[in-house]
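This part of the workshop introduces the protein records we will be handling. The structure tokens are whole numbers drawn from a learned vocabulary of backbone shapes. The record below serves as our worked example for the rest of this section.

===
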Amino acid sequence: MSSPRIAVLDVDGTLVDTNYQHALAWYRAFRSLGETFPVWRIHRLIGMGGDRMPAALGGDELEERIGDRARERWTEEFDAMIDEVAPLPGARDLVVALRDRGHRVVLASSGQAEHVDHSLDLLDLRDLAEAWTTSADVESSKPAPDLLQVALEKLGEPVDAPSVMIGDSVFDVEAAEKAGMPALVVRSGGFGDDELRAAGAVSIHDTPGDLAAALDDLDLG
């Protein structure tokens, strides 16, 4: 991080502590439609987009049968818990530290527009992030690289501009790998260090604040 880059930051699970609310919302959504999956299985998939969740859990047949209804119910269930969401330690400090070092900041979220707006207000990031994405910006979510590439395009930058991805899941790291970005990761996604490193993570930190403190020592190669 010794020279200016574009910092492409995931939001859910990276800057705001939402992963377990998301898992519970999906559990309740599926159960309301007659399908019960262990919460741990759902949690293992948090980080990929909701467009992929039903098929990842129950195959294409489940997606075709209840996919759209499950996503509608998930929205209702998550909205009921959104006031429980809190910033992760040092989340805003990380964005400030990136900006202070000359890096441009763009948020790459596959969340719905109203949920992204809630996170922006919760973190007071509207004047720090130059742009942000929502689920409406892409047809294919992580681990596809589309969201990261759209984030760069929103800054008017080419997809091969010097950049770095900051996320919390193996899906973030896989998307970064496909987009040609090194990936820095926080542990709040609940994935093991071995999984994150196997996916290609360059550096792993407990919290956004810990990553902010380590910025000057990172060597991205």
